Amino acid sequence: MIVLTLLLSMGLTLFLVSRKVNMGLSLAIGAVLLALLNGKNFQYLIQLILRTFGEYTTLTLALTIALITILGNLMEKYMLLDRMIEVLERMLRSAKATILLAPAIIGTLLVTGGALMSCPVVGSLGKRLELPGDKMASINLIFRHALYFVFPLSTTILLATQLGGFSVWDFIKLQLPMALVMYVAGYFLYLKGRPDPQIKAMPWGDYFKSMMLFLYYGSPILISLLGVVAFQLSFHVSLVFGILISICIHLVDVRKDPKYHVEESLWITLYKGIKPSMVIVILGIMIFKNVVNDLDGIYVYLNSLLEKGIPMELIIFIACAAISFPLGSTQPGIAILFPMILPLAPDYHTKLLYAMFVYTTSFMFYYISPIHLCQVLTLEYFQVKLKDLYRNYIYILPATYGAMILVYFLAK
Question: How many beta carbons lie within 10 A of that of residue 389, not counting itself?
Fold first, then answer.
């Protein structure tokens, strides 16, 4: 019975998402159906929603996501990211190195469909490297998304660590090999052997000045990370400092050069940075998680599958494929499977390994999904067919997933 109700709940969620309903709202509606089909009443649902909205984890996660999108909007509006990349190319003296790093740097903005923002940069550098369109599209996507395994301000990593109840740094250490494989394989598959246009060397004094400028323009992100790593601040507190740094840099820029003046007021810019749809996604995920946590039948059923000899890894793989591929997102796989799978782990280390398996498998099915928005926009920009992109993934994605399997079984 529990499996049937879960399938019906998932079916409704998938249907709503296909109808362009916000993913968080779709998950919340699916959670309500799941609860009702399992004998819960409306009073329970009201209490659960109030409890969810009042939880410290829900509040801090929603606030963190809101602050990340505000910071990203400020850095885009004030042209900090553009200047970071411009200085980076002067420092590296290599179009190849810049095209490798630029999508990742722009990817720190973490906006839906944000790969479109790095397309012009990749396109400009790619033409100088004489790259075909399908290679430029692959570079834009691979070098952007490899960051998602290790970037601590990634909304997906924050969601995973909050739901899983483990250290973000413990999780990132496990996932580092996958990011390295994507970057290294991407370089050898798409860039190695390409002639790199000569960029004039700069004197050491100019190089040092460029490095200082890179740190200056990137300081909002660096300060946000440093606050967490060095001073043990909460992410949402550290992000406030990053936002303040962005504003201060802009005020200095405007005094030096009027071209950086922005017509709208600071308050309007801050307000426009908030993405309510992303906050709603977090709220919907937390509601679904709490409903699943209250249904003991799910854990009984999963345990019965394990007792029958069905490997946990196979259960995770099939479940991730069924959830993340049709939804074109990693987050639903985490939201639905973490509450089901992680409680079955006998210890903290095993829980981390299960989390890595779910995260990476969900990511892979999201990445190749035909409705993956970053992929759709990149294909459209470079006028490339999906089959050409898949052809470029034949080696790199299996290698990345293979790295995860290796880490999983070696560390188990």
Answer: 19
